[in-house]
Amino acid sequence: MNNSIPTLPEAYTEPIKSYLPGSSERQLLENELNRQLDQVIDIPLIINGQKIRTPEQHKVVCPHDHAHLLATFCHAQKKEIDLAIDAALTAKPGWEAMPWQERASIFLKAADLISQKYTYVLNTATMLGQSKNAFQAEIDATCELVDFLRFNAIFMEQIYKHQPKSEKGVWNRTEYRALEGFVFALTPFNFTAIAGNLCAAPAIMGNTIVWKPSSNAVLSGYYLMKIFKEAGLPDGVINFIPGKGSRVGEIVLNHKDLAGIHFTGSTRVFQTLWKKVGANIETYASYPRIVGETGGKDFIFMHPSADTDQVVAAAIRGAFEYQGQKCSACSRMYVPRSRWDEVEHKIKAAADEIKPGSVMEFKNFMTAVIDEAAFDKSLGFIERAKASGSARILSGGTADKTKGFFIDPTLIVTDDPCYESMTQEIFAPILTLYVYEDETLDATLELVDKTSVYALTGAVFATDRQAIHKMTKKLAHCAGNFYINDKPTGAVVGHQPFGGARASGTNDKAGSFLNLLRWTSARTIKENFVPPGNFHYPFMTE
Ligand code: NAD
Questions:
Q1: Angle at CA 462, nearest 5°, toward 460 and 466?
Q2: Cα 115 from chain centroid?
Q3: What whole-number percentage of the chain has pLDDT above 70?
Q4: Mean pLDDT of all residues in the chain?
Q5: Count of other CB atoms within 10 angstroms of residue 459
Q6: pTM of full prediction above 0.85
Q7: Can you tell me the distance from the alpha carbon of 270 to that of 188, in angstroms, rounded to the nearest whole number?
Q8: pLDDT tens, 216-226?
Q9: Which domains does the chain have, with CATH numbers?
Q10: What is the CB neighbour count within 10 angstroms for residue 172?
Q11: Residues with CB under 6 A from ligand 1
Q12: What Rg do the C-alpha atoms of the chain give, in angstroms?
């Protein structure tokens, strides 16, 4: 009988491997890169632990070398989507009844498997399938994912420990039940860690999952499923069904036992899902929890007192790492007139220095964008800027998709603060700069707040403390993650809980207990030790 009250291992942030030339970690990663490049694997659906294949086959290629085939994968059809829902519902009673310490143990084991045994496998799949350079893959597929898994166990424990008061004669308790039904995890291409967490966060709270990964991140998703299995996750708890988003969505969102949606992706898709849930509301057994982290139009605001080198370094890293394909990527920047000459010169020199290339060459700061559609969409913004009377290209503006989907880091300068690339999410290595007059600081802060529908991340740079205080206050609602003298990307689990409001999402803060709260439905239990024996109150005495 397990009657102990165990203490969870302390969560710590996974150290980042450096991959310096000549290091053993670099050698091991190169070996794994070559191994995965030398094979073409066949990725099945995984439903109730069973590998299932369908005739509709698609390809996984390297975005930086699109002729190179890495894998083929199947698309789920109606039959398999129904099977995945059934599997999740069947696995549910056993999973939610499992003591929470055992659930924690499975995900903590998965974290250590990723940290030690499979770090090169998962980093490689992310590098080759999603075109991340070694460092970007490391901070995502190993570090952030491991942090999510370790910290989620702590967050779960914090929630379970939260109990109501009890007075004499009564014992009140709160029981944190899993949601009734299954959770639909719908994940984006750009972070292996997010894909893992969108499944693992509801699962650790006792829910079972139907997971539709992005078609552009199936390779890393498949390896992740294998790792979860090796960690001891029971069959049916997470069911992996790559497929066409609208087809899977249509069936899943029509199911009466849909208990929640854990989504990260574009605002457009999220709004479509929400509308469908609204239209189907009478179909469901309960109100589905809808959690979505979506698009951004993230900014850097430079105050006249800021240090130029720091601003430029933050802008280049914030805008161009992972080719600008982070929801938090800096894509609009405000520079005071008094500092413009200096900034223009330095940021152009820095951007001109960057040449995107293959993930196999470790010197590359940037590689390719995810696919042809992303490439063509980005090029549209570049071509329109070239033709526009209110914008000009300061650096880049060139692209080549012959071998891979390469877009040179592009700086657009505009004199229109509402120019399309100042307001719309592009999700590519394109940063638009707007020069403001120093004396219009207050009005420009107002502009920053109102320019876009999004409110995900933003950064201010200044050395003047009064200015920092003022900007922090004025920009209170236009970023869920606000940075002072730092780039707006790179949130760390447990340190900077992540999420934005307005059109950027429900702000349920991945990487904190707030997210896990959405995956539980509390039951309050009151036990009366000495219940009254009749209905008369003392005041009724004549
Ligand atoms: P996406 O919206 O195109 O796809 C997300 C998922 O939804 C994929 O699995 C896709 O197949 C699925 N999907 C697409 N259409 C669907 C439909 N009609 N019904 C059901 N499912 C459907 O997003 P993406 O291109 O994979 O990712 C990039 C987007 O994600 C950007 O907008 C970015 O800002 C956002 N993002 C946000 C965060 C955040 O934390 N706020 C983090 C990462 C990415």
A1: 100
A2: 19
A3: 100
A4: 98
A5: 28
A6: yes
A7: 11
A8: 999 999 999 99
A9: 24-294+509-525 (3.40.605.10), 298-484 (3.40.309.10)
A10: 13
A11: 186-191, 194, 212, 214-215, 245-246, 249, 264-266, 269, 272, 293-296, 327, 425, 427, 456, 498, 500, 504-505
A12: 25
